[in-house]
């Protein structure tokens, strides 16, 4: 049993660029997080892009879908910005793949201390191993089906519709 | 849906006592971890004891079992030292409760940076929401049934028998 | 012997606002840093403003100078954004106060893990206790006199002119 | 101007050994701390030993003194366990070397989050650059002369005699 991890960026992987004082992306931190979590589940990581999900286009989503279709694994973890998780979830669900796809991310960058990212990664990997085929969002310690989730913009928490 | 969290200590909650230079226990860190993980799953926490699991006796296990039986929730997360997780798992499994019990812990104390505890907590809470009734150990990003798990003392990793 | 700490913001105290995904300021972290450092030096903290020093105006600097003049202490630690530390240093030096003023800050926000802030605070407090009256910048483990310092914009390191 | 850093261990450099659940020593963390602090002061690090200072003998202290005498630098930072800092300070002071020696350490291991080590290192390096020849202990944001310091065993704080 192996899990494919597809990285697209989002707050999860944001970093602080000290020279220009802005937030940006470098390499994904998923490998070091799996190491810290002492994860023995077999995983294969591929970074597709490193973007804020507000800037994600359907061309980006088509790339994500293409990868979901073509990777050999039937369990896929997708790291993603929280702002358009439900949009991507719906896009992928329409393809009706015989796979379990769990989308997760973070409200606070992993690198910034006090991040929810590490906890979310553990939860998402667990859900991937037990949920039946379908597309899900895993945030706040819970999972939501693709058609019953939204991000509450005031609280930054995910909830059912 | 509510989850009961029963705390028994273990490396998960160990701290450094700066005055005597030794490791000890204070209050459990589970509440702050759930807050950091922005967990919206309804949980009820009860600290049963704060012990190194090598020092756990069957009297302690009987107390754990008693709580598992009597709490209203049918989903129970048990934090526990890694050394005798499988012993407690077997003890609880024999009672055949109509509940899902997931045991987790950490190899490095949560308070000591570089801990696997936060990741394990996320995974364990997720497994609790999807696994059928039974007793499980959740470590290293995976879950094991109570009758098919042991801690490898050389590597500190959990594996099937 | 007491030290006055005047807080003006800068990267030192920046935080991540998870709702809008931007960096901003909340309360200063100097009190918690002094506590973590187990600092027994007597200090009095006053937050004058919380700004990025690129946005600091001479009206702001006049407020800083006014406080430097009027506080009873003759040892003053000023936390400040790194971009215009030398500008403020010169502004204060011109007043020729019979006081020791040490300006410090950070290239990475204290709250973002991997910060130089905590180290810089320790160094700055130490320099304050040993340097004669004058105005200094303390960064990178060193001190510079107000008239012999600049921030290298490429490396983010401070150096003599 | 270059600073010699002599490492002897102490709580400063303690780590958690997850396999046997005990505290132990690995490599010193001083290099990574200097990097994190973005320290541009020229330093040369030598690890003399990695011991709890309660176990330090006069043979160990003779080795420390020998190094203090023979290194080319006249500014020496000594990392040391807090329990017998004043004993080593006196031992070194008796040699009356034409050097500035500052001893520092930590009450909480650097690796254990919430450590005072990083702050103490910044302070000690700063004191080294401004104090006249002599032997000092730098803890709690302050410096003490070798003949006027003791560790308060109840509070873990350093104070004058």
Short key terms for the protein model shown above:
homotetramer, 161 residues, alpha/beta, 6-stranded mixed β-sheet, two-stranded antiparallel ribbon, 10 strands, 31% strand, globular
Your description of this structure?
4 copies of one chain form a homotetramer. Chain A is α/β, with parallel strands linked by helices. The first copy, chain A, has a single domain (2-159), classed as Rossmann fold (3-Layer(aba) Sandwich), CATH 3.40.50.1170. In chain A, 27% of the residues lie in helices and 31% in strands. Chain A is built from 4 helices and 10 strands, in the order βββαβαβαβαββββ. In chain A, strands 4-1-5-6-7-8 form a 6-stranded mixed sheet, sandwiched between helices. Chain B binds chain D through residues 11, 16, 18-19, 21, 23, 52, 107-109, 111-114, 153-154, 156, and chain D through 11, 16, 18-19, 21, 23, 52, 107-109, 111-114, 153-154, 156.
Sum up the overall morphology of chain A in one term.
globular
Helix content of chain A: 25-40%
List how many beta strands of chain A DSSP finds. 10
Mean pLDDT over the full residue set of chain A: 97
Domains counted in the coordinates of chain A: how many? 1
